[in-house]
Write a structure and sequence with these properties.
The structure holds two protein chains of two kinds. By secondary structure, chain A is of the alpha/beta class. Helix content of chain A is about 25%, strand content about 25%. Chain B is mainly α. Helix content of chain B is about 50%, strand content about 10%. Classes of the chains: A alpha/beta, B mainly alpha.
Chain lengths: ~170, ~400
């Protein structure tokens, strides 16, 4: 970890008591969903992380608690640092408070995560889909969403097939 | 005969002003098939006469599910998808992805490959800016610019074809190096381009920079202040035209950019003209880097262009015939792929449009668990509403051209 980053991570640890992981020199800070807006505001105002580089998510299906991680990749131009915040979200009715009031770019990025993963952002000013067509159901980047082609089923036991491919049952 | 559905603006109610609901302002649809939207972009405009009150972009017409597709391929095979993101900067996308894979599995790249990467990336940056300049001129009714720019772009396309066999979708960079060494004609071809190009840039400037018709349409149009730009995640030339000196090549040097001598053009006006000037200046700076890269390349002949770590990099064809291990590695790498650690990294490069970041997550197996491309056009476009408010529809076309969006990059 960058020596300039250590005091910032320490301050976050004192304030929010998160778990911190390190990999290839990058710090991944796990905060709770209800703390995320406060953490982002603190990082932007006090530690000059002006740029929210990326906001995305990752699905760990079949795990359900937590099922998703929402990833906030922050950059500081003044200090030339990067920091990753992660929020673990449960599988049933995934919800995270919106970061639109902290970073404007979160508006579209959160719409993308809503579209692709079905994670709701509470208090989002414009909660519409962004990339997929309006008439499409489902969230494509979830791990239980099929890629598009038909998987070969080596059985005629249709109950078995329906169990495996819930999405194919009409 | 199909029934026509009545169009309702209910879903846009919260985005337009009060006046639109009473019918005082007009809602006008621009695109998705509009020549000046640079692809398949739809803009819903709220107009007061000819003045824009709100511009609401509607994207997703080119969504191809690249991120999802990459999850189903091995790390080596997923790379071909990255070419299709930002089709004006294909090798730059390859570079971003390769660097992410190299960081995830901790793979070193030989010096010569890094120099080749720098040269090709900078040539591609020039090619991308040429398309910007051509389309920019075309949108402002300077049609000859388009023809001139595409004439010069052809040199670069030929150089890419020389190296990789492909003009656009090159997949020339591979994790661990580049696909193969540059051919002998490479040096002469690039030198020819370096010889011709500076004069051509002067020609563009003679045509556009002091053209009073153009200045009338560009100066103090679409001003973006640095605070709004950063909050919207705007990066690249658009951010640098707003007075923020931020270039990842300087700030976090990668593939050896710290060894090159070049400047980062910055303008403080933040208007459409400043963005145009930054692009013009970047032509010259990129050319400087290419020139220095060629000198470096000359000093290191016959050096490897791929890592010799056979657990990640496919052995060269000649080795397969004589070495059993090479054959096994070749087979294993192309069928099964190599495993990557169960963790995630974020790595970013400076693309011609801004910060092109790759969030790559491995799951211990040979396929990525999650690939997210942080594409610069997406965030740059999100600021369009704030840039266009209060301007005329004709200015919208100029502003849209000046932020240099690529719809393949936005919709992924």
């Amino acid at each position: 970890m960058d020596t300039k980053l250590e005091p910032i991570v320490k301050a976050l640890q004192e304030r929010f008591a998160p778990t911190v992981e390190e990999f290839r020199g990058e710090a991944h800070v796990f905060v709770k969903a209800e703390q995320i807006v406060e953490a982002l505001t603190l990082l932007r105002d006090k530690y000059e992380f002006e740029l929210l580089s990326a906001l995305t998510a990752s699905d760990y299906y079949p795990e359900t608690t937590p099922r998703f991680h929402v990833v906030y990749q922050l950059s500081s131009l003044a200090k030339n640092l990067t920091l990753q915040l992660r929020v673990a979200v449960n599988g049933d009715q995934p919800k995270v408070p919106t970061a639109t009031r902290v970073y404007d770019t979160a508006n579209w990025r959160e719409r993308e995560v809503l579209d692709m993963f079905g994670i709701e952002f509470e208090g989002h000013p414009d909660p519409r889909k962004i990339l997929t067509p309006d008439e499409m159901d489902g969230h494509p980047l979830r791990k239980d969403f099929p890629l598009g082609y038909e998987e070969p089923q080596f059985t005629f036991n249709y109950d078995d097939i329906d169990l495996k491919k819930i999405y194919a049952k009409e | 005969m199909p029934q026509l559905e009545e169009v309702s603006y209910d879903q846009y109610k919260h985005l337009v002003s009060e006046r639109a609901l009473t019918g005082e302002t007009m809602l006008l649809n621009m695109g998705p098939q509009h020549p000046s939207t640079h692809g398949v972009l739809r803009l819903l405009l709220e107009l007061d006469g000819e003045t824009i009150v709100n511009a609401i972009p509607d994207i997703g017409y080119l969504h191809t599910g690249i991120e999802k597709n990459m999850e189903a391929k091995t790390y080596l095979k997923a790379e071909v998808m990255t070419d299709r993101l930002d089709y004006m900067n294909t090798t730059g996308n390859n570079l971003a992805y390769c660097m992410a894979v190299e960081k995830l599995v901790d793979l070193d790249v030989p010096e010569r490959a890094q120099v080749i990467r720098v040269i090709i990336t900078e040539l591609q940056r020039i090619a991308s800016h040429l398309v910007f300049m051509g389309a920019f001129g075309l949108d402002l009714a300077a049609m000859s610019m388009f023809l001139y720019c595409f004439r010069e772009r052809e040199y670069i396309m030929d150089i890419l074809e020389l190296c990789s066999g492909q003009r656009m979708m090159t997949t020339y960079f591979r994790p661990g190096g580049v696909w193969r060494d540059v051919p002998v004609e490479f040096d002469a071809a690039v030198r020819e381009f370096i010889r011709i190009f500076p004069r051509r840039v002067d020609e563009y400037e003679a045509l556009l920079t002091k053209n009073p018709i153009l200045l009338d349409r560009l100066v103090s149009i679409g001003i973006l202040d640095p605070k709004t730009a950063l909050s919207h995640g705007v990066t690249g030339p658009t951010l640098r035209a707003s007075g923020v000196n931020w270039d990842l090549r300087k700030a976090r040097p990668y593939i050896g950019y710290e060894q090159y001598n070049f400047n980062v053009p910055v303008r403080t006006e933040g208007d459409t003209f400043a963005r145009y000037i930054v692009h013009i200046e970047e032509f010259r700076e990129s050319l400087k880097i290419v020139e220095q890269g060629l000198e470096k390349l000359k000093k290191m002949p016959n050096q490897p262009v791929q890592s010799d770590n056979r657990k990640f990099v496919v052995p060269p064809r000649a080795e397969i015939g004589v070495s059993m291990e090479a054959l096994i590695h070749h087979f294993k790498l192309w069928t099964e792929g190599f495993p990557a650690p169960k963790n995630s990294i974020y790595s970013a490069v400076e693309s011609p449009r801004g910060e092109l970041g790759v969030y790559l997550e491995g799951d211990g197996g040979p396929k990525p668990h999650r690939v997210h491309m942080r594409t610069p056009s997406f965030d740059n476009l999100s600021a369009i509403n704030k840039m266009t408010q209060g301007h005329l529809v004709a200015d919208l076309v100029a502003i849209l051209a000046s932020i240099d969006i690529v719809l393949g990059d936005i919709d992924r």
